[in-house]
Amino acid sequence: MNMKDESRSKCNNMVDLIMAIEDDEGRRLHDEEIIDLLIVYVFAGHETTAHTAAWAIMYLEQHPEFLQKAKEEQEEIVKRRQADSDKKLSYDEFRQMKYLTKDDEAKTFSAFLPFGAGPRLCPGAELARLEVSVFLHYFLLNYRLERLNPETSVTYLPIPSPTDNCLARLKRISTSCQ
Question: Which strand (E) or helix (H) includes residue 154?
Fold first, then answer.
């Protein structure tokens, strides 16, 4: 069996397994639920960092008090940077981002955990957090997003997205902290 056939076989096995799943009462998933699961598997890890960064910016734009705190934290990180250092964000500075990288603290059994937990923890979770944090650091210091339709609805398939694709104006802001 070549690699392509082996991959196809694994995919068919996964689909077969999903189709055969039953709950405690013997009910199987509806076609729509199976399609939703397959879409999630296809998109898991694909463009999720970009979507997370976009949702973070949209959320911060909708909540100016959080935007201000996050921006102040980033400005403080830059102010603490030594004058002779190279002007790039360091890993130590990333670790100083207590507010921007604050995780959800209401982790109950029914809580949504985007990167999973325990043995099913996403191996790319830390890299994704780092990528989003670096992007937000520079974005908060240098840009401002003004959504043109802030009350637009959200579509949920294949992943949550504003129906207008976040139609917005992006403005460069002048700042002494770069």
Answer: strand 154-155
- Of 48, 65, 72, 71, the residue nearest 122 (C-alpha): 48
Tokens linked to 68? 């201000």
More confident residue, 103 or 172: 172
pTM of the complete model = 0.68
Q: Which residue has the higher pLDDT, 175 or 32?
A: 32
Yes or no: say if 102 and 165 are a contact pair by the CB < 8 Å rule.
no
Contact 71, 140 (CB under 8 A): yes
For tokens 């809580």, the residue is 111
Tokens 């130590």, residue located: 92
Q: Is 69 exposed, middle or buried (0-12, 13-18, 19+ CB in 10 A)?
A: middle
Phi-psi domain of 54 (left: phi exceeds 0; alpha: psi -120 through 50; beta: other)? alpha
Q: Which two tokens stand for residue 172?
A: 């460069």
Are 164 and 148 contacting, i.e. CB atoms less than 8 angstroms apart? yes
> Cβ distance 22 to 28 under 8 Å?
yes
Beta bridge partners of 145: 170
